Amino acid sequence: MGKLDSKIPKGPLADKWTKHKNEINLVNPANKRNIDVIMVGTGLAGGSAAATLAELGYNVKTFCYQDSPRRAHSIAAQGGINAAKNYQGDGDSNYRLFYDTIKGGDYRSREANVYRLAEVSANIIDQCVAQGVPFAREYGGLLDNRSFGGVLVSRTFYAKGQTGQQLLLGAYSAMNRQINRGKIQSYTRHEMLDLVIVDGKARGIIARNLVTGEIERHSAHAVVIASGGYGNVFFLSTNAMGSNVTASWKIHKKGAFFANPCFTQIHPTCIPVSGEHQSKLTLMSESLRNDGRIWVPKKLEDAKAIREGRLKPTELKEEDRDYYLERRYPAFGNLVPRDVASRAAKERCDAGFGVNKTGEAVYLDFGSAFMRYGREAANTQHIENASEEQIKKLGQEVVEAKYGNLFQMYEKIVDQNPYETPMMIYPAVHYTMGGIWVDYNLETTIPGCFATGEANFSDHGANRLGASALMQGLADGYFVLPYTIGDYLSKDIRTGKISTDSPEFEEAENAVRAQLEKFVNNNGTKSVDHFHKRLGKIMWDKVGMSRNEVHLKEAISEIKALRQEFWQDVKVPGGTNEMNTELEKASRVADFLELGELFAKDALHRNESCGGHFREEYQTEEGEALRDDENFMYVAAWEYTGEPGDAVLHKEDLIYENIEVKQRSYK
Amino acid sequence: MKLTLKIWRQKNAAAKGAIQTYQLGGVDPDMSFLEMLDVLNEDLVGKGEEPVVFDHDCREGICGSCSLQINGEPHGPDRAITTCQLHMRKFNDGDTIVIEPFRAKAFPVIKDLVVDRSSFERIQQAGGYISVNTSGNTQDANSIPIPKEDADLAFFAATCIGCGACVAACKNASAMLFTSAKVSQMALLPQGKVEATKRVLAMVEQMDAEGFGNCTNTGACETECPKEISLENIARMNREYLKASIK
């Protein structure tokens, strides 16, 4: 175990969090006024945590690279948020949510953390409703729920396909209330470029004002990283263009361990890549899988004819379609978890059954849903002898009410009407489940430095079920971190204001300045994007959805070489003392080029398949992921020692006391 | 496709800006408008010139970062979409496209096509929230039943992405559509009722203080809004404001 102490409280699982809250030290309200906290990132985790910390009485400084916290990438989450409310009376409970999450995580997350997440999930819904988040409602005025991939109960709360937006605006409004009270100072268009450690404790950050280029020093008694995930290491992903690993990577280089970097969630329902020009990928909400049926042609010649435009999907008879998820996984069908659905799509496309020009797409077909809903609507509207056409139209109206905005979005991008022809989808990088290692208090291996939401690793494991990310962001932000951080801060009440004149701040600022100067004076020949795209290609081809030893080793040496080339040949026009978006990108890509190598190294060392991490050498006869619980039931936490390739592995064993670890099956 | 692009370039807030003309080839109709600008920037960087700076982030129409006045229209020619969702198939080979920042006194230009929309932030901070503690001790969510119709209307108002197209489209540079969307969301829900009076007065006061113009019912805001926020919200805000003023 070495340096990793997870600080999981003792006692029965269901009592751990209550007991812990009762036992951790509190800070006197009068002292909270003298304590400053820095929050890097203002999405669901950072925004909600900043608001709550400010409400508790701490002075909070928030930083985000966007022009407003309301634009954090949490806003793009579509489907929903889970909570064990059991409003539908279908047998849900804290334990069941906990169990599903652990299982969906392929037994690679911490029992105590995941239970706590399930436990506070119901509070999140109450909190958001109180803030005026307009969740979907039934005609009786009560909240509506739907089910999501990998789950057999309806526990997902949603606001059409814009749940993330509404939840983020809720957290943002809570922040605004504190900004108005003067308890939060919001620094927008600012980017954290380094962490400052004084006497072994996180005491501040170096940030760049992205408008003026000014380098600023900000001190605090604790620093929280809530800057999201690192999926953009793949260049093409569903992440926002500015999403980056910089804050996480900088603290990693200063001593925070990076856990399970190779655990990436590949989302099965994205709009496929259409050409070389593409800058990012667009996700279609997973909720579509509730009603859409996924298929490819049964015969290779039909697939070929479709690719060449000689055959339309609607012309293919029912018996010539292969509903491969329903065939392989009868119990869950189209609702299998993301990793299973993604891999199954890749398997069919690799076998030659892909349906778009590049052969990398499968159909998501609403044809049966139109008819099913249409018949129901015809019945309730007492339309007798309705024609097929009429039924289809009625059904389309029902589907439009549910997913209209998603259908519209698809049509705008692909230029095809999904009411007339099935949607095409393909897996894409969506969410990263690795991240900064944190203990039960969400504290990293650097004292006083915390990490929340997607930036940490704690509750994810190898695969995460749909509608869990929003839940974790808000659980950490509203209900966990603001209390656990108090335990640390209670030891800091006599510290007083922290000076930014210390040699530590000086040194960190100089290092940041030197790197920025190096970029603008480099006079190379290739753009930042050129390197980012090449990195992304290596990552997707060799470290993506399925990996093997040979490719991973190649990837590691290719990334090393690319990094060297980047530093020699990158070209960044403009100066440092002005708005310079190329310079911003250069800093981010420099960090991705290091993270990418650690990512591949982590994937290489894990000789097993689990969840979103699939090693081709380790699979069952049926092609399912084959875990090795005996040797790999641990968190891989990497310590930086100078080069990403030389990182030192620390293991946190995962101990399951309350759950029986078994082979995941959705059959 | 080959295009002639006339783009507003401005070094910084203090500098004088001007339209510059660029020729761009190799544009694929399947590219989004912003991907087309990426291609232009790749060219410019290759030549050692500074790329055109524009705001963008999620590129799926929800974060509200992207702006751009394209041929005189916020977010370009198509309805109900943001610039990042606009695709080049909406243009023809050989077209000339004029690209400018959103123009409004309350949205000063920061650089090139990037404007400062923090005035929107301050309107929200003036009271665009419900004053509830984030303590986790709130009542059970289902103890506040809300008619589906009200919840849906509140949701439609809440889908505003704060991009500022309404301001850029308005001849008075009014922020009424934006402000009214927020006021409406809360006016339609039972949760924020007790502070409704204070909220609408404070938000309208801040809106005026930021230098936004008044509403003259032209309706350009609604037409250009990527999220189709309805003018009804302005009517609702006016009613709320009137009620609050005579209390």
From TrEMBL, chain A:
Q: Which GO terms describe its biological process?
A: anaerobic respiration
Membrane topology designation: Peripheral membrane protein
Q: Name one GO cellular component term.
A: plasma membrane
Keywords annotated in UniProt: Cell membrane, Electron transport, FAD, Flavoprotein, Membrane, Oxidoreductase, Transport
Provide the Fumarate reductase/succinate dehydrogenase flavoprotein-like C-terminal domain boundaries.
532-666
Question: What are its E.C. numbers?
Answer: 1.3.5.1
Q: Domain FAD-dependent oxidoreductase 2 FAD-binding, which positions?
A: 36-470
Q: Which NCBIfam families does the record associate with it?
A: PRK07573.1, sdhA_Bsu
Protein name per UniProt:
succinate dehydrogenase
**Organism, as annotated:** Antarcticibacterium flavum
UniProtKB/TrEMBL annotation, chain B:
The Gene Ontology biological process terms listed for this entry are: respiratory electron transport chain; tricarboxylic acid cycle
Q: Which Gene3D superfamilies match?
A: 3.10.20.30, Alpha-helical ferredoxin (1.10.1060.10)
Task: Describe the family membership recorded for this protein in Swiss-Prot or TrEMBL.
Answer: Belongs to the succinate dehydrogenase/fumarate reductase iron-sulfur protein family.
Gene Ontology molecular-function annotations: 2 iron, 2 sulfur cluster binding; 4 iron, 4 sulfur cluster binding; electron transfer activity; metal ion binding; oxidoreductase activity
List the PROSITE patterns hit by this protein, alphabetically.
2FE2S_FER_1, 4FE4S_FER_2
Pfam families in the record:
Fer2_3, Fer4_8
Q: Which PANTHER family does the entry link to?
A: SUCCINATE DEHYDROGENASE (PTHR11921:SF41), SUCCINATE DEHYDROGENASE IRON-SULFUR PROTEIN (PTHR11921)
Is the keyword 4Fe-4S in the record? yes
On the tree of life, the source organism's domain of life is Bacteria
Q: Where is the 4Fe-4S ferredoxin-type domain?
A: 151-181
Task: Name the chain's protein.
Answer: Succinate dehydrogenase/fumarate reductase iron-sulfur subunit
- Tell me the cofactors it needs: [2Fe-2S] cluster; [3Fe-4S] cluster; [4Fe-4S] cluster
Swiss-Prot/TrEMBL keywords: 2Fe-2S, 4Fe-4S, Iron, Iron-sulfur, Metal-binding, Oxidoreductase
